[in-house]
Each structure stands twice: as C-alpha cells, then as structure tokens.
Peptidase S24/S26A/S26B/S26C domain-containing protein (Lentilactobacillus diolivorans DSM 14421), 53 residues
Amino acid sequence: MIAYVDGRSYIKQFEHTERTCQLISLNRKYAPIEVQDNPSFQIKGIVIGTLSN
C-alpha cells in the first residue's frame, strides 16, 4: 500500500492484529512503523503492479 505518515510517504505492507497496526517493509533492514494511534496516518493507494525496464 501507499501510506502517508508524519509527513512522509511509504510503500509498505499493512499488518493488522488484535494489538497493533503497522507498516512492514519487504526489506528487513527497515523496522516496522507503528500506525495504530497516529492521527497523521493515511492510506493513499494500493500497489497493483510494478514496471521494470
């Protein structure tokens, strides 16, 4: 998904459990971003494919 959090845009996977909502990167180098209680969190779109050259 394409998400907006604290003035920044991200392309991440969204994970929702009973305890938390977070954005997860496919690259494990990046830590999850907690968004459950963040009023600036917005879903801007869904990624449906990729382009490569």
User: Anything to note?
Assistant: Residues 15 and 22 are 5 Å apart (CA to CA). The mean pLDDT is 95.
